[in-house]
Amino acid sequence: MTDPVITYTETGGKGRYLARVDGIDAEAELTLSKMSDRAIIVDHTGVPDALRGQGIGAALARRVIEDARAAGQRIVPLCPFFKAYAHRHREELADVIQW
């Protein structure tokens, strides 16, 4: 599998990460809401069937975590997929996840 290309766009208090893989006409997404400059809520992760089973959801999760750390933000995990990912990596994410 080719690594996904992940882009981020922000409109007002909402953000959206999109993941695309060369040769596949589909895109995965992770959306968030900004609570403040210091906290965001991950509220949705969607991976279409054409991209499932390739680690795309985990790549999106890692990217939002990396960006939140760099910005000094905490993440409130409301999305069921992201919450499960955060639980599996609880110790290494203790600095960035707000339970």
TrEMBL record:
Signal peptide: none annotated. PROSITE patterns: GNAT_YJDJ. Gene3D superfamilies: 3.40.630.30. GO terms for molecular function: acyltransferase activity. InterPro entries: Acyl_CoA_acyltransferase, Gcn5-rel_NAT, GNAT_YJDJ. Residues 9-98 form the N-acetyltransferase domain. Keywords: Acyltransferase, Transferase. SUPFAM superfamilies: Acyl-CoA N-acyltransferases (Nat). Its EC number is 2.3.1.-. PANTHER family: BSR4717 PROTEIN, PROTEIN NATD1. This is Acetyltransferase.
